[in-house]
Amino acid sequence: QGVPVRQSETELVSILEAPGIAVRSSQPPPSFMAGSLDVAPVAELVGLLVRQRLTGRLDVTTAAGVRALYFEGGTYTGSTSTFTADRFGEVLWRNGHLSLDQLAIASEYVKQEQGKLFGRALVELGFLDSGRLRTCLVEQAMAVFQAACLEDRGTIAFVKDSYQRQPLRFGTSTAELVQQALKQAEAHLAVLARVGRLDRPF
What we know:
- The protein is an alpha+beta fold.
- It is about 40% helix and about 20% strand.
- It is built from 6 helices and 7 strands, in the order βββαβββααααβα.
- The protein has helices at about 40-50, 90-95, 100-110, 120-125, 130-150, 175-195, and strands spanning about 15-20, 20-25, 30-35, 55-60, 65-70, 75-80, 155-160.
- The strands form 2 sheets. Strands 3-7-4-5-6 form a 5-stranded antiparallel sheet, covered by helices on one side.
- A hairpin with a 2-residue loop joins strand 1 (about 15-20) and strand 2.
- The N and C termini lie far apart (about 60 Å).
């Protein structure tokens, strides 16, 4: 039997760091990592991706749906989501870029023009110009990022070297987004501590 060799701290690579938890390995981060949101908040794990400048897709899965956050070299480049509230039209309406009538017209237009992207339909209908469309796409990606970071139930998985087809560039750094998300998560947890969950049994 061989004698176990103790790795020095400088030879270990951090896999996960969260309050009360530190996981390190003598190998580079694996191509796939998964775990429960009970272990660490999403924003903490995103912070890990940023610090190690990883490229890949972070899937945040709950009972209601899946949000996928994409990173290139630790920089957030966009997202996908199965949540109705994260749809492009819904985000534009909530942010005051579209009226309900415009949202309904654009939705019907897309149904008639099969394969037409919702954003392109808005431009063709004259509801948005190309420059404003890009701004709104960034707003949507930011909204998905923030919503994902607030999730505290479900699972999380990172798939290395999975790319966003059309990466976005944001006006703020991913590290700043993480700090904002951590503050929002703390405020969210503080509210839950005071009033409890809305889905709790009475």
